[in-house]
Automatic annotation (TrEMBL):
Domain CoA-binding: 4-108
Gene: sucD
SUPFAM superfamilies: NAD(P)-binding Rossmann-fold domains, Succinyl-CoA synthetase domains
One GO MF term attached to the UniProt entry: succinate-CoA ligase (ADP-forming) activity
UniProt cross-references to HAMAP family, sorted A to Z: Succ_CoA_alpha
A single BP term in Gene Ontology: tricarboxylic acid cycle
Protein name as it appears in the record: Succinate--CoA ligase [ADP-forming] subunit alpha
Entry binding sites for substrate: Y167
InterPro entries (alphabetical): Cit_synth/succinyl-CoA_lig_AS, Citrt_syn/SCS-alpha_CS, CoA-bd, CoA_lig_alpha, NAD(P)-bd_dom_sf, SUCC_ACL_C, Succinyl-CoA_synth-like
Protein species of origin: Cellulomonas persica
């Protein structure tokens, strides 16, 4: 089993024929993802060819998400469109009734995200992102930009705000493998949260240990700690990026702003440890803590 994404998932790509969409659709196909279509109103009725091994794979292009679903039975959409068009693409996918929308685009205006997030919630559609690397269930399906060859299937579940730290943790624990890894993004408003992923991993019989990567700013990690204390029985290992960040300065991700002691790495570490989470001071130390649990 895996969370949110399985080998049965049928994926469409909004923005498939653009440069980023083309590059990452090629990668997703190579990793075994069942990409069943793309969406581009100007190229509806055509197909796009992607190099795979010695030959190519042709993927049909549809004029709308609704057309793509009707023709293919797609149940996941991944969005590679510019920030100015992201809101429209998400709302189109939500209106079409697709249950999972993965938004890779960074630089989406927060007001747009707030609007389409509320809209998706009302319609019961799960969003992952924006400004995220997507998610992968190794050996089954890969939606987004996470490299598929870092690791294979295993018993670790990973949820992370940071794309690069997602890749590093997968590499550090590659000999154990992952049930799923979910990059939720670091914007101030995101669709799927740490808590959503923790609940899914808790319910997943193929996940034995959960690794949670957060970062300074906001209170998402503190809220996740409360949820872990109340609802998670599986061992959780954590890392909070930004221990050396100066107070009051906006760092990298749009959500990472620290004010006084609120949102600091130390405050988040203490909240997680109070919930029974083992927290590493570096990614490698965090991986070592997970390794101890997996080897026990």
């Amino acid at each position: 089993m895996a969370i949110f994404l399985t080998e049965a998932s049928k994926v469409i790509v909004q923005g498939m024929t653009g440069s980023e969409g083309t590059k990452h659709t090629t990668r997703m196909l190579a990793s075994g993802t069942n990409v069943v279509g793309g969406v581009n109103p100007r190229k509806a009725g055509t197909s796009a060819s992607f190099p795979q091994g010695e030959g190519t794979v042709d993927v049909p292009v549809f004029g709308s998400v609704t057309e793509a679903i009707e023709a293919t039975g797609a149940d996941v959409s991944v969005i590679f469109v510019p920030p100015a068009h992201t809101k429209g693409a998400v709302i189109e996918a939500v209106d079409a009734g697709i249950p999972l929308v993965v938004i890779i685009t960074e630089g989406v205006p927060v007001a747009d995200t707030a609007e389409f997030f509320a809209y998706a919630q009302d319609k019961g559609v799960r969003l992952i992102g924006p400004n995220c690397p997507g998610l992968i269930s190794p050996g089954k399906s890969n939606v987004g930009i996470i490299p598929a060859d870092i690791t294979g299937p295993g018993r670790v579940g990973l949820v992370s705000k940071s794309g690069t730290l997602t890749y590093q943790m997968m590499y550090e624990l590659r000999d154990f493998g992952f049930s799923s890894a979910v990059g939720i993004g670091g914007d101030p408003i995101i669709g799927t949260t740490h808590i959503d992923a923790l609940a899914a991993f808790e319910a997943d019989p193929d996940t034995d240990v959960i690794v949670m990567i957060g970062e300074i700013g906001g209170d998402a990690e503190e809220r996740a700690a409360e949820f872990i204390k109340a609802h998670v029985t599986k061992p959780v290992v954590g890392y909070v990026a930004g221990f050396t960040a100066p107070e009051g300065k906006t760092m990298g991700h749009a959500g990472a702003i620290v004010s006084g002691s609120s949102g600091t790495a130390q405050a988040k570490k203490e909240a997680l440890e109070a919930a029974g989470v083992k927290v590493g001071k570096t990614p490698s130390e965090t991986a070592a803590l997970a390794r101890e649990l997996l080897s026990a």
